[in-house]
Design goal:
The chain has three helices and eight strands; from the N terminus they run βββααβββββα. The chain has 105 residues and is an alpha+beta fold. A three-stranded antiparallel beta sheet has the order 1-2-3. The longest helix is centred in the C-terminal third of the chain and has 13 residues.
Length: 105
């Protein structure tokens, strides 16, 4: 697991410098849309049924990141201008988002 060395807000992007020197620039509204929270993505019950998650595909244009907090040594919790702050982005998940942007996926 690679950890971020530095996180900054530049315009409407979150810039992440990783310990291995890779840099990622993630648009804030895209980061909000990809929140791993149950509110956004839903969650599965014991039988595998999806519960919640009424936000996939929702337009988050104009939503910005207003702050963040480290969660242990494995994740970041972002605060968004729309009040959302329940998504916990593991370093691995953030790295996958950045890689998808870098490779155009």
């Amino acid at each position: 697991m690679v950890k971020p060395e530095n996180i900054q807000f530049i315009g409407n992007e979150v810039a992440i410098l990783w310990a291995d020197g890779v840099e990622d620039y993630i648009q804030m509204d895209k980061l909000r849309a990809l929140s791993p929270s149950a509110e956004t993505a839903g969650e599965r019950d014991l039988l595998g049924n999806l519960i919640g998650g009424g936000e996939p595909g929702r337009d988050f244009s104009g939503v910005t990141v207003t702050g963040f907090a480290s969660i242990g040594g494995y994740a970041i919790q972002f605060n968004f201008s729309d009040g959302h702050r329940t998504g916990i982005y593991s370093f691995d998940y953030l790295r996958k988002i950045g890689e998808a942007i870098r490779t155009g996926e």
